Amino acid sequence: MTDTTATTTRPWLDVALPVEERIDLLMAEMTLAEKVGQTHQVANIDPEADAETIRAGRISSSLYASGATGGNERDEGVLVGSIDAAQRHAVEGSRLGVPLLFGRDVIHGHRTVAPIPLGLAASFDPDIAERVGEVAAREAAVEGVAWTFAPMVDISEEPRWGRVAESLGETPVLSGRLAASLVRGFQGSDPSDLDRIAACAKHFAGYGLAAGGRDYDTVSVGENTLRNLHLRPFKAAVDAGVMTVMAAFNDVDGTPMHAHEHLVRGVLKNEWGFDGVVVADWNGIGQIVFQGVAADSREAAALAIRAGVDLDMVSGAYLAHLEELVESGDVELALVDDAVRRVLRLKFRLGLFERPYAARPGATNAPTPESREVALRAAQAAHVLVKNDGVLPLDRDSGTVLLSGPFVDDGEALLGTWTLDGRGEDVVSPGSALKARLGDRVEVSDGRFSDRTLQQSRRAERTVLLLGEHPSRSGEANSVTDIGLPHGQLDVLRAVARLGKPVVAVVYTGRPLDLGEVLDLAAAVVVVWHPGVEAGTALASVLLGDVEPHGRLPMTFPLSTGHIPTSTHQRPTGRLIRADVDHEEGRYLDALTYPRLPFGLGLSYTTVDYAAPTVSTSTIPTDGSLTLTVTVANSGERPCREVVQLYVRDPVAQVTRPLVELSDWALVDLAPGQSREVTFEVHAEQFAYTGRDLTARIDEGEVVLLTGPDSARLQPVTITVRNDS
Ligand code: BGC
């Protein structure tokens, strides 16, 4: 119910009015200084030190605050427990009472940490992604967090780049669909709900193309490739209602994204109609100066506000210069108004004017059986079996197992990169989980490999080696020049393999690694990324066969570092690239060009046979659709969850198009011996692409639809698209 006294003096508090009208009423009262205050985001808020600035309406948001109530303890320099105290200054102490907006990086779970996003992408499961977003939102909201800087949707085909760990993989359709699910999970249908928070699609745009995989590096890409590839998951997130988008650190073809008027204001805001907030990345506006495109922060502020960046993350350039820039006539007031309107729209839609305070007596964000169940399902779905000569699943009734490697008991390492709030003690470690399941049949060696490991391995019938990267080797600012296993791990694998008993290699990683020798030496290989709090439980359930492995690779694994980049986006050249002619026509003198493990690959403990696809009609109009059917049969003795994949190839277009591109997929459960007809509704708009004139088009002519278990084992059916009009 609306408080009439309050709405007399502050009419924008009237919830009966449409949001845009409430914004008009509020903005009509705001001074320019107060407006500029709404474009300023600080890192931490200190309710005491910042009291005056907040009361003056000169802070809009903070990005690292956490904790609704409580004292001002410092946790690694960040104030916790300060949210409601700071909010009180804004709501009750400032002239207009505009609430603060508290953001935080809640990237793959808050307290209940789920797999890193790349692992979540391996699930190919939009439903589990939505559940993960939902749990994260609920836990973060309890802390007073109203906004997360996720999902990251940068198309990732560069394994040297550490941030691929935070991404949803290399393809626009998988990335876009999972991003939409995460947005729904975070925001729900009504983001003002107590348990929901605003999401942020980041980093707009092209960040995944950082030169050489070096984080923050420059990007050289044409607009056609941007539109046909890199912008698509952002569009999917915008279509799903994402409330904010973050600008990227990189330039695109010489223009820093924080100054990129064409892409940010032009494409994102005007062409796509995005009415949410564009937030800068950390000091992204200040960095325009370092990028050499502005002489000083005043000029940087002018470029950024013109480009359409609404909220300045920590640089302070807007707070320092926007007023003067408007007063001097160098920046139009309308540009500032547009930014302020968007920030206020976000705050109104989040319900912050009605419910500014976060404290919920008794509420906790500690993991619950329900939140753990979601994390477990997600972690299980992230396990990708890439080789199995039959050693898996480990037979529960016989044989001793040695579990060894750096991750056996390291809880924190299994949380993965970007986990501000996860706790190592919440993690079920592989050692404890396998011990709980196998008792005396498993020997858990300490984390360090040594000659003792070999003695233990000699005694055991099977050895499970936990290999791979610590999360500090992936994520932001953690790129590498060599995607091989960390130093020394291959030596151990070689030594253990020489003992002649089957070795299972479990690979923890934030990126595609060069697994060549691992695949040669190990009897089975499972890629598990960094799986989160249920790491051990998930691993035990997959190794022992309680759950059938059903993850699929969301990025191509190259043959070696020298093969980067390699991905499904490969476009045809004037010389065919085909396995059978690779020797003659190949691109390298010293190696073949094929990936080690193709996109979409993932085995199960059974065998699945694919029939050739058939279509309901072989000709469709440009606005039509058809049904494609493919029969899949479980020819083995265990059940499975198959990820039936549909790819598209457009052989003749205005521009070169990918040799194959993932277009759709279906998760299909098959009992032993069962066969099922899987159908896909295929719409001609799935063949749309951006042509030479940078507009979307659907061409007449042939299109090849391909189905199979991964991007390298596909069977085609050709159809024709014709223009009826
Ligand atoms: C990262 C963003 C992140 C931000 C705030 C930046 O360095 O690029 O992804 O959201 O920091 O923590």
What would the keywords be for this entry?
single chain; alpha/beta; binds beta-D-glucopyranose; globular; 6-stranded mixed β-sheet; about 725 residues
Please tell me about this protein's structure.
The structure is a single chain. The protein contains 22 helices and 29 strands. With 725 residues, it is of the alpha/beta class. A 6-stranded mixed β-sheet has the order 13-18-17-16-14-15, with helices on both faces. Strands 6-5-2-1-12 form a 5-stranded parallel β-sheet. Strands 21-29-28-23-24 form a 5-stranded mixed β-sheet. Helix 7 (126-142) runs antiparallel to helix 16, helix 8 runs parallel beside helix 10 (232-239) and helix 16 (369-382) packs across helix 21 (535-543). The protein binds beta-D-glucopyranose. The site of beta-D-glucopyranose has 7 residues, from loops.
The profile of the biggest β sheet is: 6 strands, mixed
Radius of gyration, in angstroms, nearest whole number: 26 Å
Which spans of ≥5 residues are poorly predicted at pLDDT below 50?
Answer: none
**Ligands bound, unique:** beta-D-glucopyranose
Number of distinct helices? 22
> Which structural class is indicated by helix and strand composition?
alpha/beta
Strand content: 15-25%
Q: Give me the count of strands.
A: 29
Which shape, going by the Cα principal axes? Answer: globular
How much helical structure, as a percent, in the residues?
25-40%
Question: Which strand order do you get reading across the main beta sheet?
Answer: 13-18-17-16-14-15
User: What's the end-to-end separation, in Å?
Assistant: 54 Å
